[in-house]
TrEMBL record:
Organism: Paraferrimonas haliotis
Protein name: UDP-3-O-acylglucosamine N-acyltransferase
Top-level lineage group: Bacteria
Quaternary state and interactors: Homotrimer.
Pathway(s): Bacterial outer membrane biogenesis; LPS lipid A biosynthesis
The UniProt record lists the keyword Ubl conjugation: no
Active site per database record: 239
EC number: 2.3.1.191
Catalytic activity of the protein: a UDP-3-O-[(3R)-3-hydroxyacyl]-alpha-D-glucosamine + a (3R)-hydroxyacyl-[ACP] = a UDP-2-N,3-O-bis[(3R)-3-hydroxyacyl]-alpha-D-glucosamine + holo-[ACP] + H(+)
InterPro entries to which the protein is assigned, alphabetical: Hexapep (IPR001451), Hexapep_transf_CS (IPR018357), LpxD (IPR007691), Trimer_LpxA-like_sf (IPR011004), UDP_GlcNAc_AcTrfase_non-rep (IPR020573)
Length: 343
């Protein structure tokens, strides 16, 4: 287990040391459960009550909270970001694969760079290019003409159809499928005629895609996920979507086809975005929002109904069904009132 002194971590983060810089830190933990040798953080005032009783070896604190704690600490502007960086430094996650397993099937036309690791029962198709440092987990299938950039990691049972390109330093989690056919059909007198999906998928650098997520290939042009995007588990990205740089998409969200989402957007869980939409940069959609038309200005948008007691919900649902009738009655009353005024 690797460890660092508190002084080394302080220098790494560019913070201000408080207390003993020689203590060794080997892992991260929560305020409530931290023990000797572990570092924690305080970023939410809701947890201030746990600060004094914490058994952590050290705490990451903001300048505003530093006076509340007399123990070992690193003081920096954003303790949560500091925690993320220390967690990366102390990360003990194993590799997705080590070396090339003898049961892996690698097509003779594939280009496999030095240092690539391929797990048991993985299949690497024709004309695939795996760049240095790539890790392909057990059971993965990499289709024809795919490219995977330096140091990208695919966890077990990821499937890439043909013509999928992944950039550098990406993480693709288990059971995710990239490049399956988009939902493209024409209807001829009640019969569905499949439209071949001849585009590909293009994923930028430093993208992370969660488990059991699907990114469909483009119908003609590519489906594009740009640099720095993070996508949660069980998300559906349809054909020809374009997701802008550093956008975050939470679990169970669905984005219909030919939609463009801008940069630095935050899409909450279970959001539904209709097709052929444009979402501006820096848009925040709260959970369960349904987007039925383009959003042209940055800001926070919502449409999901917060929970309430079942009794209140039943009353409100009944009143919702009455809205059209109430609207007609109000219009009639307004019309009658104007008539009286004109007499």
């Amino acid at each position: 287990m690797k460890s660092y002194t508190l002084l080394e971590l302080c220098q790494y983060l560019g913070g201000e040391l408080q207390g003993d810089g020689e203590i060794a830190i080997h892992s991260v933990a929560t305020l409530e459960n931290a023990q000797s040798g572990q570092i924690t953080f305080l970023a939410n005032k809701k947890y201030q009550s746990q600060l004094q009783s914490s058994k952590a070896a050290a705490v990451l604190l903001s300048p505003q909270d530093a006076s509340l704690y007399q123990g070992n600490a690193i003081v920096l502007q954003d303790p949560y970001v500091g925690f993320a960086r220390v967690a990366q430094l102390l990360d003990t996650t194993p590799a997705a694969a080590v070396d090339i397993h003898p049961t892996a099937v690698v097509d003779e036309s594939a280009s496999v760079a030095e240092g690539v690791a391929i797990g048991a029962n993985a299949v690497i198709g024709a004309n695939v290019r795996l760049e240095p440092g790539v890790q392909i987990g057990p059971g993965c299938v990499i289709g024809q003409d795919c490219i995977i950039g330096e140091n990208s990691r695919l966890w077990p049972n990821v499937t890439l159809y043909h013509n999928v390109h992944i950039g550098k330093d990406c993480i693709i989690h288990s059971a995710t499928v990239l490049g399956a056919d988009g939902f493209g059909y024409a209807n001829e007198r009640g019969h569905w005629i499949k439209i071949p999906q001849t585009g590909g998928v293009r994923i930028g650098n430093q993208v992370e895609i969660g488990a059991s997520t699907t990114v469909d290939r483009g119908a003609i042009d590519h489906t594009v996920i740009k640099d720095g995007v993070i996508i949660d588990n069980q998300v559906q990205i349809a054909h020809n979507d374009v997701i802008g740089e550093h956008t975050a998409i939470a679990g169970c969200t669905t984005v219909a086809g030919s939609t463009t989402i801008g940069k630095h957007c935050i899409i909450g869980g279970m959001v539904a975005i209709s097709g052929h939409m444009e979402i501006a940069d820096q848009v925040h959609l709260t959970g369960r929002t349904m987007v039925m038309s383009s959003i042209k200005e940055s800001g926070v948008y919502s449409s999901g109904t917060p929970h309430m007691s079942n009794r209140d919900w039943r009353k409100n649902a009944a009143r919702f069904r009455q809205l059209d009738g109430l609207f007609s009655r109000v219009k009639q009353l307004e019309k009658a009132g104007k008539s009286e005024q004109n007499k």
